[in-house]
């Protein structure tokens, strides 16, 4: 079995040493009896599967970055430990994918150089561990964060055409080592099996675009208007969440609605706070260490005003954007206090921004008094009621009677026999398909989806025709003048045909070359 031209013995020897973890000379006379066995082929197949498995996890890891701030908050709530776990996820995933990719490239090079594939036991052990780690990651995702499976499905509407090109290209690249293996092996059954599997996969890939749909495959003149931006707790990447500074930063980002959360203090003052405890976004542990674990509603307004609601933002850096704040913004951050609803309504009235809020906690025994106190502040503020969007379901009918001008926003889809038609819905972006969004749009129902941070997701929802999106990254989405990509169906069809034809010709050339 002669080595292919251009495959020098020192290079082949180095490849063998890296793959087999032992010094094996590549010269034929010094490796008599050393050949690739069925067991070695099985390990190569396992290596390829682990690489593909890890590659799929890398894709998921990138997709779930849109929602990873929620995971960071969840971990803080459970462990009182703040860390940007997305960095841990990406670094660990990059290490796993790099390791399996290097081994796979070594195996391909060895095959092209007609060298045996003798994978060392250490590599075998590490590959098994890699597969177990990735399997555990997928299992944890399915148990604790199942909605991310729907996020991945939505992501295919944005990445489908590019994934198709990439996978077809990768499988086409495999043709060269596959042809080399087939022409150099004497096992006829194995040859037929590999050819059948490869041909089946390629045919499936060539026809895959027939089942692909994306709202961004449309003509330019069919593109809906850009969705309005709703600031999730303001502009939390630029200022501490649920503060007046965050509201003003949101206004600077052309946000039309300030989305927030309202609680009511022990002495009846509505104020802005998302968490049931004050530990994450204030210095309550330093000011009231013995009361830090109490519910936010257990504090009176005087005590709440003693708390610093900004410095945590600089200390924990919940988003990478904190590092780029100016000196003036950093000083402003340290001056933030918990704002009352009255203060926020006054600021909203002056800046002409609408306010949408939840009233927490919904299961509190005094929830009706919370509703009454909140309504009283709204009616006394003098803000135009159409600027107020009411999310809480509790005592909604009472709110409609006392303040009929307030816009009612529902956190559910419409029912079949709805007595009173819905005008505004507010849902997670995973809960509505592109078809449902289009139907709601046709029926003049305003659809707001949350939380949308990444441009790829914003692009898909823009093409679908969503009315608005709630976002942490208003400064990013503000700058988008167009979806990331938009293709007329005729152009997409042409790209599909060109890619498939080029792939087929490349595969044919590879088999003819190796023959």
UniProtKB/TrEMBL annotation:
Pfam families: GDPD. It comes from the Eukaryota. Its main location: membrane. One of its GO terms (molecular function) is glycerophosphodiester phosphodiesterase activity. PANTHER family: GLYCEROPHOSPHOINOSITOL INOSITOLPHOSPHODIESTERASE GDPD2, GLYCEROPHOSPHORYL DIESTER PHOSPHODIESTERASE. Belongs to the glycerophosphoryl diester phosphodiesterase family. This is GDPD2 inositolphosphodiesterase. It comes from Nyctibius bracteatus.
């Amino acid at each position: 079995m002669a080595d292919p031209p251009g495959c020098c013995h020192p290079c082949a020897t180095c490849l063998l040493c890296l793959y087999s973890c032992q010094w094996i000379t590549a010269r034929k006379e010094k490796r008599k009896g050393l050949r690739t066995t069925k067991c070695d082929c099985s390990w190569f197949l396992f290596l390829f599967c682990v690489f593909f498995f890890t590659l799929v996890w890398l894709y998921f890891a990138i997709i779930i970055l849109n929602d990873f701030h929620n995971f960071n908050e969840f971990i803080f709530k459970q462990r009182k430990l703040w860390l940007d776990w997305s960095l841990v996820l990406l670094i660990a995933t990059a290490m796993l994918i790099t390791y399996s990719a290097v081994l796979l490239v070594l195996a391909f090079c060895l095959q092209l150089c007609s060298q045996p594939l003798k994978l060392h036991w250490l590599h075998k052990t590490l590959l098994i561990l890699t597969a177990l780690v990735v399997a555990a990651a997928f299992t944890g995702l399915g148990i604790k964060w199942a909605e991310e499976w729907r996020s991945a499905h939505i992501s295919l509407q944005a990445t489908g055409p590019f994934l198709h090109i990439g996978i077809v290209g990768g499988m086409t690249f495999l043709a060269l080592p596959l042809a080399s293996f087939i022409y150099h092996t004497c096992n006829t059954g194995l040859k037929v099996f590999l050819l059948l599997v490869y041909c089946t996969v390629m045919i499936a890939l060539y026809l895959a675009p027939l089942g692909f749909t994306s709202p961004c495959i449309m003509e330019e003149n069919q593109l809906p208007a850009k969705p309005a931006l709703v600031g999730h707790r303001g502009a939390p990447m630029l200022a501490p969440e649920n503060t007046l500074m965050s509201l003003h930063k949101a206004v600077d980002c052309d946000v039309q609605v300030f989305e927030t959360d309202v609680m009511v203090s022990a002495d009846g003052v509505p104020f802005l706070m998302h968490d049931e405890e004050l530990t994450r976004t204030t210095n309550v542990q330093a000011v009231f260490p013995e009361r830090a674990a109490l519910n936010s509603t257990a504090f009176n307004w005087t005590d709440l005003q003693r708390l610093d609601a900004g410095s945590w933002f600089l200390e924990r850096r919940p988003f990478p954007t904190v590092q780029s704040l100016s000196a003036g913004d950093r000083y402003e951050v340290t001056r933030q206090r918990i704002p009352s609803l009255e203060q926020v309504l006054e600021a909203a009235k002056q800046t002409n921004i609408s306010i949408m809020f939840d009233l927490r906690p919904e299961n509190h025994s005094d929830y009706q008094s919370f509703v009454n106190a909140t309504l009283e502040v709204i009616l006394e503020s003098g803000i135009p009621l159409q600027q107020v969007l009411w999310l809480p379901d509790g005592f909604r009918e009472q709110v409609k009677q006392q303040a009929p001008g307030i816009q009612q926003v529902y956190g559910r889809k419409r029912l079949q026999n709805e007595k009173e038609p819905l005008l505004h819905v507010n849902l997670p972006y995973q809960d509505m398909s592109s078809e449902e969004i289009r139907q709601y749009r046709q029926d003049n129902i305003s659809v707001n989806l949350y939380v949308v941070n990444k441009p790829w997701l914003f692009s898909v929802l823009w093409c679908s025709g969503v009315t608005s999106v709630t976002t942490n990254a208003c400064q990013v989405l503000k700058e988008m003048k167009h979806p990331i990509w938009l293709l007329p169906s005729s152009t997409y069809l042409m790209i599909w045909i060109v890619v498939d034809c080029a792939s087929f010709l490349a595969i044919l050339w590879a088999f003819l070359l190796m023959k």
